[in-house]
Amino acid sequence: MTEKYVLAVDLGAESGRVMCAGFDGQRIEMTEVHRFSNTPVYANGTLYWDALRLWHNIQLGIRQAAAEHEIASIGVDSWGVNPILLDNNGHLLSNPVHYRDNRTDGAMSWVFERMQRREVYERTGIQFMQMNGLYQLASMVRDNSSQLKAVGTLLSICDLFNYWLTGTKKAEFTMATTMQLCDPRTKDWDRALFEAIGFPLDTLVPIVEPGEPIGTYEGIPVIASAGHDTGAAVVGIPTTTQEYAYLSSGTWSLLGLELDHPVINDAAYEANLTNEGGYAGTIRLLKNIMGLWIAQQCRNTWAEAGRDYSYDDLVRLAQSATPFQAFVDPDVDDFFHVGDMPEKIRAYCRRTGQMPPESDAQMIRTVYESLALKYRLVLEHLIAVSGQSVERLHVIGGGTNNALLCQMTANAIDRPVIAGPAEATALGNAVVQLIAQGELANLAEARAMLAESIDTVTYEPQDSALWIEQAGRLSEQVAATQQ
Ligand code: ADP
Ligand code: LRH
Fold first, then answer.
1. How big is the CA angle at 359 (ends 353 and 364), to the nearest 5 degrees?
2. Of 102, 202, 276, 457, whose Cβ has the fewest other Cβ atoms within 10 Å?
């Protein structure tokens, strides 16, 4: 059978890539066509995404792939939460402001003065995080941004590139939900929320489901994929079974369950769990954990000091260090912004009465152990809130390259970890396109095909009693730091 080729444009917070998926009717094979870094830029005190450089690289990748194969379609996915504003002529009003920029400081309480926190959750089911689109837009209203006088259209990052590719402005559903501006039950914008913050309703464009055609780019059909990278990654889980949880492990750690309905109740609210819209009517009940961002920032700080470690070096360093010396709650606000992460970790340890890690090796071990232990605490919440049992954890994304963290995770959750693929997001993106073209029947068939095509590595839990005891220590510390 001849192969069909589709392109997945996958934009992560650390790197973007154009991947070419070849499907022969039985198996899928992914080739990396072009990878590029996604380096944010400070200008005049504001942190921006470099949208134009990303656009340049996307076109470069597509051109390279099209020179080698006949491309049946293109799909774009990207990191979530970021709104984009266009003027009435369709021009960008500003380079997209990064979700880690401090313009959203204080924006959450500003919103809750206009609509109660519990009601915001009731309407959206989305985890409260200051980076959410809701707070980004609210900060602009609060600060009287001059852009609001000229705004014509609200889009997200993946929508912007779909627009630049095709000339069509549409809001992709999985992405729209991450902004905390949608009702997951009606699958539409929550207009009352826009009214509460005073953001113009006439900026809203129709929401399209993943799988719908958007237009064409140089004759190639562009299909709305699962535009949110986490939505695409979960499509890309190579499984034929139930009773699993997943961990999408990259810049963020997204730990959750796939459900067919949102869980919006007091328990979910208390646990601050999110209900993100997924592919084919699914809902991702998950928790956004700070993730490998902490390791990325340690690495940057050390590189600036002349100690240039690869990710493999970091894993080797962590392996050489002493276990269980200190823990951090990865999700404290301090760790969210760009900065000297080792110093932030030392400050956290001093604050919580722990000996701060001194060497780089001890520091990175603290980061990995803390993440694994936090995964256990979050998994317990997910199980309690959903009532679903979990037999194993599928880890997907770049974090699957970190065998030490995968093993620590299996130990901490006392369940097997199945690691892979690292490029689940691009695979999920491609699969949505293949289903849209009738090459695959549905999500279940696609995942069975992925399970046949993809090699995974299984980590069995070891020394779990010890890890569970340490998770108890972290849990006490989390409770103490939240008081
Ligand atoms: P994003 O999509 O958010 O840009 P990725 O899914 O590409 O992130 O994952 C990137 C992360 O994967 C890196 O920050 C790093 O922590 C981890 N990683 C990548 N390669 C390796 C490696 N060889 N060893 C250990 N960790 C790795
Ligand atoms: C992961 C991710 C995550 C979002 C965050 C902004 O890349 O999309 O799901 O919450 O970035």
1. 80
2. 202
Look up 229 and say whether it is catalytic: yes
CA distances from 329 to 222, 366, 417 (A): 41, 10, 22
DSSP-derived secondary structure letter, 103: G
**Domain range summary for the chain, segments of one domain joined by +:** 4-228, 237-420+441-483
* CATH number belonging to domain 4-228: 3.30.420.40
**Matching fold, domains 4-228 and 237-420+441-483:** yes
Q: What pLDDT is recorded for position 410?
A: 98
pLDDT band for 1, please (50, 70, 90 cuts).
low
Q: Whose CA is nearest to atom 5 of ligand 2?
A: 80
The residue whose CB lies within 8 Å of the most ligand 1 atoms, and thus the one to mutate among 313, 400, 401, is 401
Sequence-separated (6 or more) residues with CB below 8 Å from residue 263: 125, 273, 275, 283, 285, 385, 386
pTM score of the predicted model = 0.98
311-370 pLDDT, tens digit each: 999 999 999 999 999 999 999 999 999 999 999 999 999 999 999 999 999 999 999 999
Q: What is the CATH code of the structural domain delimited by 237-420+441-483? A: 3.30.420.40
Pocket test for ligand 1, best of 251, 252, 341, 409 (most atoms within 8 A of CB): 251
| Catalytic site residue from 229, 329, 331, 360 | 229
